[in-house]
Design goal:
By secondary structure, the chain is mainly alpha-helical. Among the domains are: 56-106; 120-172, no CATH class. Helix content is 75%, strand content 0%. It is built from seven helices and no strands. The chain has helices at residues 2-5, 11-28, 49-119, 122-129, 134-143, 146-155, 158-172. Helix 5 crosses helix 7. The chain is elongated and about 145 Å long.
């Protein structure tokens, strides 16, 4: 701006003067072109001795805290396992009770069924046993006295009597449950 007032100066000269003035102003400002360099923090030695000492001092406490947390986790897991074992034992007890009642019922039913056939006439029993599963018929006949079983078998059709006889004979064969060699 001063350059405009001078007689005989050109615009280029005034631009040069302005650039020089701006440069001088910038150089005069402290830290204008300075780069920030990380200075070491106050109180932390360059060799790290205090840091090492601090870490060493708290290592035992940190380890103890970690062990304490792990111990709490293990105790919680053990408690959960103990609860599950109690539940399983309760269910096992209920199942054993149910199985005992079922077996008692089946035993009573079988005794009752055999008793029913024991009091029937041979021809009526034969007609009924021809209609049931051959394995069931064989089981009933095996529990009847031999004389009564023979009368019932003689009243059955030849095919059904043969099937029931095969079931009875296979039950007494010691090699029935063995796999073929």
């Amino acid at each position: 701006m001063i350059a405009h007032n001078l007689p005989g100066t050109s615009k280029s000269l005034s631009r040069r003067l302005m650039l020089i003035a701006a440069g001088c102003t910038m150089l005069a400002m402290p830290g204008a072109f300075a780069q920030e360099v990380a200075a070491p923090a106050v109180g932390i030695p360059a060799n790290g001795g205090e840091i090492q000492q601090f870490c060493t001092n708290i290592a035992d406490a940190a380890r103890d805290q970690r062990y304490l947390l792990q111990k709490k986790d293990l105790e919680r897991l053990q408690f959960d396992i103990d609860e599950r074992i109690v539940t399983l034992e309760k269910r096992r007890s209920e199942y054993e009770d149910w199985l005992k009642r079922r077996n008692d019922f089946l035993k009573q039913a079988q005794i009752g069924l055999v008793g029913i056939y024991k009091t029937m006439k041979a021809d009526a029993a034969a007609a009924k046993l021809e209609l049931v599963n051959p394995g069931v018929a064989a089981a009933i006949l095996m529990q009847l006295p031999p004389r009564q079983s023979s009368l019932i078998l003689s009243e059955m059709s030849n095919e059904k009597a043969a099937v029931v006889t095969n079931v009875i004979s296979s039950a007494t064969d010691p090699d029935t449950s063995k796999e073929p060699s």
